[in-house]
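Reproducibility note. Readers wishing to regenerate the assembly model reported in the main text can use the exact inputs given here. Chain order matters: entities are listed in the order in which they were concatenated for prediction.
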Amino acid sequence: MKYGIALFPSKQIQDFANSYRKRYDSHYALIPPHITLKNVFEADDIQAQTIIKTLRQIAAETDVIPLKITKFSSFYPVNNVIYLKVEPNETLQELYKKLHSGVLTDQSDYTFVPHITIGRNLSDAEYFDVFGRLKMQTVHFEETADRFHLLYQLEDGAWTVYETFLLGKDRE
Amino acid sequence: MKYGIALFPSKQIQDFANSYRKRYDSHYALIPPHITLKNVFEADDIQAQTIIKTLRQIAAETDVIPLKITKFSSFYPVNNVIYLKVEPNETLQELYKKLHSGVLTDQSDYTFVPHITIGRNLSDAEYFDVFGRLKMQTVHFEETADRFHLLYQLEDGAWTVYETFLLGKDRE
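Running the prediction on these inputs yields the following structure tokens for the assembly.
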């Protein structure tokens, strides 16, 4: 089965992101607005059980995560993805690192650029038009994330949440 | 914020349900295939915290749930909803009851008919055509559900999972 790990920001940020995604993001209907913490990976049922135990442990020893969003940005010229930029911070980086170590090690050698995609698969003309307007816009969200989710992918490409992992060393 | 409580069946059942939902269910893009355990309800942040504590307690004291699906059925003539019928059982009924008692009490006086919707808002002609074919079909799924989810609704109607609750008195 195909799994992925994501963090859902608050409803407020999701609603804001969706107001763009519905027009510009072809994945709009497949998953709510999210920060990808680990890209799609394959695991069988046995592997998944090991991974879930590891994720519980990682969550328990990871602090809640400050999320600060200050602007629109894009991966151009690599691709035409437009996103809400999430300011990197140590806790988020540390979590990302743990989600790519031990049983969770994979071939990924990307630098982690935390973001919430709001547009993709745009033509060049549309990309320049849309991003030209968005990059001038002021955006400001600050909140604290206290959970992340393991999801699996259905045949049609949509994602279902399998389990929530609550962050925080001092959780009740 | 608007919340709801649902149970997601396995990927196998979800893929099967989606093969119909993509054609017949106008909510296809809003939520993966699911069994509704508690209909949409309103709660503020403080209420939500109380509810979440209650749900953790309910989950801890509820056994895993056998799910058996044997046929397509429909709510006609009340409405044109077509669904996969989930055989009622005591554990499921008991969970439903707990999710409508105490702080979770609401005005709902429906009988609980556990089901996975695969079609809705069909015209009468389409309903008779589709259901006429589906009711002849043999369906057989049996599995065990070991979790349910609290979800909240975004402005566009889509649902995001907030938290997973693991069932089982004897969980490790």
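We highlight two features of this model. The two ends of chain B are 33 Å apart (CA to CA). Chain B has one domain: 2-165.
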